[in-house]
Amino acid sequence: MSRYEKGKEVLEGIQDRSVEEIFKDLDDIAPDLSRFVVEFPYSEIYTRKEVDLKTRELCTVAALTVLGTVPQLKDHINAALNVGNSPVEVVEIIMQMCAYAGFPKAINGVVAAKEVFDERGLLQSGD
Amino acid sequence: MSRYEKGKEVLEGIQDRSVEEIFKDLDDIAPDLSRFVVEFPYSEIYTRKEVDLKTRELCTVAALTVLGTVPQLKDHINAALNVGNSPVEVVEIIMQMCAYAGFPKAINGVVAAKEVFDERGLLQSGD
Amino acid sequence: MSRYEKGKEVLEGIQDRSVEEIFKDLDDIAPDLSRFVVEFPYSEIYTRKEVDLKTRELCTVAALTVLGTVPQLKDHINAALNVGNSPVEVVEIIMQMCAYAGFPKAINGVVAAKEVFDERGLLQSGD
Amino acid sequence: MSRYEKGKEVLEGIQDRSVEEIFKDLDDIAPDLSRFVVEFPYSEIYTRKEVDLKTRELCTVAALTVLGTVPQLKDHINAALNVGNSPVEVVEIIMQMCAYAGFPKAINGVVAAKEVFDERGLLQSGD
Amino acid sequence: MSRYEKGKEVLEGIQDRSVEEIFKDLDDIAPDLSRFVVEFPYSEIYTRKEVDLKTRELCTVAALTVLGTVPQLKDHINAALNVGNSPVEVVEIIMQMCAYAGFPKAINGVVAAKEVFDERGLLQSGD
Amino acid sequence: MSRYEKGKEVLEGIQDRSVEEIFKDLDDIAPDLSRFVVEFPYSEIYTRKEVDLKTRELCTVAALTVLGTVPQLKDHINAALNVGNSPVEVVEIIMQMCAYAGFPKAINGVVAAKEVFDERGLLQSGD
Q: Which among D77, A41, C18 is positioned nearest to B101, based on CA atoms?
């Protein structure tokens, strides 16, 4: 299996979407950037056995909360849920970031989580 | 038990040092900042049961690698090892950050880990 | 008075809104994060007498301009005005940040201030 | 020619818009900030002969991709094209930033470029 | 008085050092950068009457604590003291930043303050 | 030629050092991170023809000045000189960053450049 095929399988498994859907904004002007994402982090990092996917995705949620890059944070909140984290665990780690990156980043991270949970139908009855 | 006593117990357990040692640089000019660290994150966040300490500390290592604050990163690499992460797991998560915060932050994080491992005698014979 | 009650009084006084309104986005998925904001910075930092509220809020506006977290910047521009800073003082400190964090952050901060001033009816007739 | 007149000429040349248009959001509440932008970077930095405008603007695109300040990034993507960079060169440098600031910043930079290219009619028929 | 002379007077007054001393690291390779600092922020921002120097310098200390640029933070802690802030006020604002930029930045800011206070002989008897 | 061999050739050519020397700090605890640097940015980005190496390295210097990661900034100042930029061009781009990331980052970048120039014997007679 090529690096691309291996990364595509991992990425599509984690995100539960096709790579065409994931990269629809990039593919007409920077297709190689999409390819790099598939071939490098998904083919070569997320496939390593040293840490399981559930923990990897929580750590990525922590990192993206600190960075404040909302579109990617939402993608990885979805991914974190897809690989076995509960909504409570995801929110907990975002909250924890208030100690390291301040309350604004933690609050904005929780707002992003709420949007994802809402899209997944996880906020019901009276929310 | 007061908030301070509870946080002190958790922090000293995680860091395997006394709070006096941990905050020796702060206590003569900002003792209340040390107290805040004990009473807020350690008493009120790290005591929560939603996520275990092993995972919390890995997420904190991820966050501090992204932030690039070396003294705190080294403290939490120590903490991550103390609560049950292996050196391999710690390095793996720091490496993973290259995809989210770039290679410079990941490389500087690994250099910090190497210093911690060396201080703990984990780099031996021919390393 | 409990830590929560004390922080609530301070926060509602500064923001001139109820905590329910302030945290309406967080309360269904991360109510403890709202509680932390009330109990820690508002109950334990903003109540300290070492620096007055007017100066504290200007410093927070400076910090949030640098961080670029717009929702919180807008909240604290409102707060800065509520505790006695003039619109001119607020804009002046945001402008000053161009020297420390570059023009983009200063410009985006001024745009946030303009939105707040507009919501408060401070931009009138020919402005 | 005054510092302002010199900077205005350079800025309007690079941006292909009048200063009134460029600073329409700032001029009613922070006109001096607009003036600083004209008189300092455009009059005193972009006029220097040590590096040509084409290279300067690519370096600014790199910096703003890292900073993630989208409105200014879009302005300078436009500027980079106006002073002689091709769309391919601009996208290439934004992509390169994935190695230094991570994939999220690079992806958000490419999305900004796509918006600019679209506004300029550079994404056509089947792109 | 030229812009340079005006800025030099303000900067030397605030820092209580000559510009030659302040910029000794820059003058052989980037003398124009030193000149920009004198002519732009010190001549054109710090001279404005909208906010007094005491408040300006506290806001700058807040910003530099968030940015984590230690040499400049130490310069401005000195400046903040020189223009009338007490050591307690300076430490208080640095501590306040824990809520906005996290504990690591606040702790590193306090450590920088301690070094400055020590150099000024403000940490005595038993410290 | 394998991805590794291609990246090694490019990296060693740009840095004028062997990969063993470049990664001596990483190789005993994170050899795969070194390999990723060789195989991804050097094999797959710096080899692309869309932008020449001279411009790529200046853009990287801009990015690293903004990020403030000094060890990597120094490596890329060296690289920028090795691929044909003059010391004046490198300093000019670092200075330009004062407008986008503030004076502290620009000043710290120039100090890094001075250290590199000194190591290369470029600061002579009276410096």
A: A41
Q: What's the whole-model pTM score?
A: 0.97
Which pairs with CB-CB distance under 8 Å and at least 24 residues apart come from B81-87?
A: B81/B116, B81/B120, B82/B14, B82/B15, B82/B16, B83/B14, B83/B53, B83/B54, B83/B57, B84/B53, B84/B54, B85/B54, B85/B57, B85/B58, B87/B113, B87/B117, B87/B122, B87/F29
Q: Which residues contact E97 (CB under 8 A, 6 or more apart)?
A: A102, C63, E62, E65, E66, E105, E106, E109
Residue-wise pLDDT for B28-56, tens only, equals 999 999 999 999 999 999 999 999 999 99
pLDDT digits (tens, 9 = 90+) for C82-120: 999 999 999 999 999 999 999 999 999 999 999 999 999
ipTM: 0.95
Q: CA nearest B69: which of E111, D75, A126, F3?
A: E111
CB spacing of A100 vs E102 below 8 angstroms: yes
User: Are D52 and D60 spatial neighbours (Cβ–Cβ below 8 Å)?
Assistant: no
Q: Tell me how close the Cα of A119 comes to any Cα of chain D, in angstroms.
A: 21
Interface test with F, best of C98, C107, C108 (most F CBs within 10 A): C98
Residue C83, helix vs strand vs coil:
coil
What is the rounded CA–CA span in Å between residue E107 and residue B114? Answer: 23
In angstroms, the separation between the Cα of residue D32 and the nearest Cα of chain E is 10
What are the tokens at D5? Answer: 């007149």
Distance CA C118, CA C127 (A): 10
CA angle (C120 as vertex; C115, C126 as ends), nearest 5: 75
Q: Are the beta carbons of C102 and D67 separated by less than 8 Å?
A: yes
- Confidence class for position E103, pLDDT limits 50, 70, 90: very high
Residues of D in contact with A33 (CB under 8 A): 95, 98, 103, 106-107, 110
Kindly list the structural domains of chain D, giving each domain's residue range(s) and its CATH number in brackets, ordered by start. 1-49 (no CATH), 51-121 (1.20.1290.10)
- Residue B85 is classified by DSSP as -
F101 in Cβ contact with F92 (< 8 Å): no
Residue numbers in C near D112 (CB within 8 A): none
